[in-house]
Design goal:
Strand content: 25-35%
Strand order of the largest sheet: 4-3-2-1-7-6-5
Order of helices and strands: EEEEEEEHHHH
Shape: elongated
Number of helices: 4
Oligomer: single chain
Number of strands: 7
Distance between the termini: 43 Å
Helix content: 25-40%
Length: 155
């Protein structure tokens, strides 16, 4: 089943945003422009690193679907989709990915090994700020602060 959603970015070859058609096939996600000059972009489930559905706005009635994937040239990208049908697309995508990973267990380990280390979060920034304040008050040394910061950032 195809879903009509709004493309906001994330496909290096497609700089134009707007309405697209997306569908979760047994082994890949397809995002394409509707109409006579159909152009599509396929992402194998084996290259997907993360898929998330996030509420958008104060009323949280709209959702944003983020699909992080390995572009194959040493970089990752995130396709950003939104719209009324994005939650149904997310459900279909998750079911198809799960079946794909059951059929291809080696794909799951390949994705895990190619996944980048987690990026610092707001919680990490808060923790670093706490240790910085302790350093400024003279409670911990510069070296202790630097060591903790390195640990929190995963460097």
């Amino acid at each position: 089943m195809s879903f009509k959603v709004e493309y906001r970015g994330g496909i290096p070859e497609s700089r134009k945003t707007g309405t697209v058609v997306a569908d979760a096939f047994p082994d890949h996600l397809v995002v394409g422009t509707p109409g006579f000059s159909f152009k599509s972009y396929n992402i194998s489930y084996g290259k997907m690193l993360d898929v998330s559905l996030v509420p958008e706005g104060a009323k949280k009635k709209n959702y944003v679907l983020n699909v992080e994937y390995d572009t194959g040239n040493g970089f990752t990208s995130v396709i950003v989709l939104t719209g009324k049908e994005v939650s149904q697309l997310y459900g279909s995508l998750q079911k198809s990915r799960q079946k794909y990973m059951q059929r291809n267990p080696s794909a799951n380990s390949a994705v895990e090994s190619s996944a980048p280390s987690p990026s610092p979060t707001a919680d990490t920034a808060t923790e670093i700020q706490k240790f910085f304040d302790l350093k400024e008050k003279g409670i911990i040394s510069e070296d202790e602060f630097a060591a903790k910061k390195t640990q929190l950032l995963g460097i």
